[in-house]
Design brief:
alpha/beta; inorganic pyrophosphatase (n-terminal core); Diaminopimelate Epimerase, Chain A, domain 1; 6-stranded mixed beta sheet; 5-stranded parallel beta sheet; 43% helix; binds manganese (II) ion; exopolyphosphatase activity; DHH_sf
Length: 389
C-alpha cells in the first residue's frame, strides 16, 4: 500500500524546517490526551485539507501561471503530546505501525516552538476533538478558524472569533464528524468518496477509531449514535469490507488488546501512562499487578525519579491483572519519606467504610480483596488521610 501519510508528513516537516517557501501554515491539533481519536482526526483532516487545497488550486490556475514565486499553503497535523511519551499511547502506536507510520513520520507539539511559529508566520489553527483549550494551549485561541468536536458545547471559556467554522455535535467519535465533513466537501468538489479512495490508510484510521470509541456500538457503553453508524457504513463500502460484523469485532479486539499491552514499556513509562495526583500522592494504576511491576528493572529507582519529577511525597501504586480472573494489589512507597508511607499504608489498611480488604504480601505489597475498588475509591480516602494529619 502506498502511504500518503508518510510522504506528506515527511514533506511538511522538511518544508517547515528547511525553508520559508510557503504562504499560510495551517495547523490541525487534537486534545492533550492525544488518544486515538485526537491523533487520527488531526492527521486525516490535515491531509484532507492539503488534498482539497490542491484540488482547488488546479482548477483556478493553469500550470504556467504558477511560476516560481507562487507559494503553497501547508497543512500540519500536530500530535498534542511530547514526543518522548508517544510509546505510552500503545493503541495509537499499534495502529500507526500497522499502516506503515512510525514515530519519525509524526510531528509532536514539542518539535516546534508553537508560540513563536504562530507569532512569526501566517497561521490558522483547526481544533479537532476538543474546544476547551488546556492552560498550555490557550495561546492558540486567537488563531483558531475551525473547530470539529464531539463534546457537549461549553462556552464558559469561549474566546474564538465570530466567524470560526464550527461542527460541534455529540456523537461517539470525532472521527465520525471528520468523515462526514470530508464526505460533504468531496461532494461539493464533484469528487464523491475520492479522498477516501485515494487515501486508504486514512479511511482505515477513521474506521478503526469509530469502532474503538463506540466500543463497537456496544449497548452497554451506549456511545454510538446513528451518525456514527452511518459513517461506519460509508467507510466499510470504501474499504470494501466483505464481512462487517466479523471485521468490526476483530478491529475492536485488536485495538483493546493493544491499548492494554504494556509489555514493551519501562518502569518509568508505566508510572506515567495512567496516573493521577491527589494532594502530594502520585497514584499510578497498572494493567498488571504491583508485585509484577516491582520485579521490573529499576522499578524502585523509577518510583523515586517520577516522585521527584511530579513533586510528590509518596506513591500509591495500584495493580490489576485479568489473566486468570481479576486480581488487584497495591503498595504505598516513599523512598525518601518512609514514615509518611507507613502512615498512609496503615490508614488504608484500617479504613472500614467500606474496607479495601488489604492483605499482606511480599514487602510493601498488599493484595486487595475488595475487587470492585478502583482508584476512584482510593482518592477520597487519600484526601481524608491528609485532612487527618
Ligand atoms: Mn474524542
Amino acid at each position: 500500500m502506498t502511504n500518503n501519510i508518510v510522504t506528506l508528513t515527511r514533506m511538511l516537516d522538511y518544508v517547515l524546517r528547511k525553508s520559508n517557501d510557503y504562504d499560510n501554515i495551517n495547523i490541525v491539533i487534537g486534545n492533550e490526551s492525544c488518544d486515538l481519536d485526537s491523533a487520527v482526526c488531526s492527521i486525516v483532516y490535515a491531509l484532507y485539507l492539503n488534498w482539497q487545497h490542491n484540488q482547488i488550486k488546479c482548477k483556478v490556475c493553469t500550470k504556467d501561471k504558477r511560476g516560481a514565486s507562487s507559494k503553497d499553503d501547508i497543512f500540519i497535523p500536530i500530535l498534542n503530546m511530547v514526543r518522548q511519551d508517544f510509546a505510552l499511547k500503545t493503541e495509537v502506536m499499534y495502529l500507526f505501525n500497522k499502516l506503515g507510520i512510525t514515530e519519525g513520520d509524526l510531528i509532536f507539539r514539542n518539535d516546534y516552538d508553537l508560540c513563536s511559529l504562530l507569532r512569526d508566520s501566517k497561521c490558522n489553527v483547526v481544533l479537532v476533538d476538543h474546544h476547551v483549550l488546556a492552560a498550555n494551549d490557550v495561546f492558540l485561541s486567537a488563531f483558531v478558524t475551525e473547530i470539529i468536536d464531539h463534546r457537549p458545547l461549553d462556552k464558559s471559556r469561549w474566546t474564538y472569533k465570530g466567524d470560526t467554522r464550527l461542527i460541534i455535535e455529540i456523537v461517539g467519535s470525532c472521527a465520525t464528524l471528520v468523515t462526514r465533513r470530508i464526505k460533504e466537501m468531496c461532494l461539493l468538489l464533484g469528487k464523491e468518496f475520492q479522498f477516501f479512495k485515494d487515501h486508504m490508510p486514512c479511511s482505515q484510521m477513521l474506521y478503526s477509531t469509530i469502532i474503538l470509541d463506540t466500543v463497537n456500538f456496544s449497548k452497554e457503553f451506549n456511545k454510538g449514535t446513528p451518525e456514527d453508524e452511518e459513517m461506519i457504513d460509508l467507510l466499510e463500502r470504501v474499504l470494501m469490507i466483505e464481512n462487517p460484523i466479523d471485521e468490526r469485532q476483530r478491529v475492536l479486539d485488536e485495538l483493546t488488546k493493544a491499548k492494554s499491552d504494556v509489555s514493551k514499556l519501562t518502569a518509568s513509562q508505566l508510572l506515567r501512562k495512567d496516573v493521577k495526583i491527589v494532594e502530594d500522592v502520585l497514584i499510578p494504576s497498572f494493567p498488571m499487578l504491583v508485585e509484577e511491576f516491582l520485579r521490573l528493572d529499576d522499578a524502585v529507582d523509577a518510583v523515586k525519579e517520577v516522585l521527584s519529577q511530579r513533586e510528590c511525597l509518596v506513591a500509591l501504586l495500584l495493580g490489576m491483572d485479568l489473566t486468570s480472573g481479576m486480581k488487584r494489589d497495591m503498595a504505598v512507597m516513599s523512598p525518601n519519606n518512609e514514615n509518611l508511607a507507613e502512615k498512609l499504608d496503615s490508614f488504608l489498611v484500617e479504613w472500614s467504610s467500606p474496607s479495601f480488604e488489604l492483605r499482606p504480601r511480599d514487602g510493601a505489597v498488599r493484595g486487595q480483596l475488595r475487587l470492585s475498588a478502583t482508584r476512584k475509591q482510593y482518592v477520597p480516602v487519600v484526601q481524608e488521610f491528609f485532612r487527618s494529619l
